[in-house]
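Weekly modeling sync, notes
Attendees: S.R. (lead), two postdocs, one rotation student

Agenda item 3: backlog of single-chain predictions. S.R. asked that every request posted to the team notebook include the full sequence so nobody has to chase files. The rotation student volunteered to paste the first one in as an example of the format we agreed on. Action items at the bottom.

Example entry:
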Amino acid sequence: MNKVVLAGGTGFVGQDFARRFKQLGYEVGIISRQSGHIAWEDREGIIQALEGAELLINLAGKSVNCRYTEENRRIILESRTQTTRILGESVLSCKNPPKLWINSSTATIYRHAEDRPMTEQDGEIGTGFSVDVATAWEQAFFEFSLPSTRQIALRIAIVLGNGGVMEPLTNLVRFRLGGSQGSGRQQFSWIHIEDLFRMVIYLQEHPQLEGVFNASSPHPVTNRHLMAALRQQMGVGWGLSSPRWMLEFGARIIRTETELVLKSRWVIPARLEHEGFVFTYNTLDTALAEILKQKN
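Predicted structure, as returned to the notebook:
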């Protein structure tokens, strides 16, 4: 039986991936801080899980949906870099290491962009805390030289599926708060969770591919378009818009940061499209229709 190891595999994406891999007949090992799985402190257990695995996918990291206090900043950074280094050292300790290691990164690594899209080749790295985390995360990953293991960093956009960010977005629309946020001009780069999984399989099946890939739909939209599409799909005629000052006030109340909705992420999957990957959900309307159909 083929084996896959999901590090940080108990979150929204990890649970979905575990289900899909099991449907394909894989044995799935999960490394997590939650009980019932391989613990991050159990180095021997991690090495044993990785021995003979076809694939290692690292999704670990504290959620950025919080206030960026000094303590949260430290945990956000260390929960990504330290776990990545634990995995790298464990792969080096394997006699039969995984053939492919896919490490999460984030599309937030690029600058706020309203003027042009960012690709792997000509995208400009931004500044600020989130960008610093992303660059440190990728540096921790690529500092390992693994002769028997191919390495790919996925700069993942906002993942849409039955859970995750769709819960707060649909709640906003349902309670008539689903207008544009801020200027509404900021770009929203996204990917349907099924296409993210298909992307992983595609990368696994093409052994010549390595390095950095943008994991996003080829058709990002503005925030105004996103909220209008959600309202249309949910049959809600209007929604109150939220100016920046209101978002700043609300973010403090619900203990999060406005960057999550106000940063313009304009990211294009140029490398994957060039390599021939075809998206099942390449437009927002098709993605939302499928997801909301599951919820009804």
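Discussion: group reviewed the output briefly. The CA atoms of residues 2 and 194 lie 20 Å apart.
Action items: rotation student to repeat for the remaining queue; S.R. to check formatting next week.
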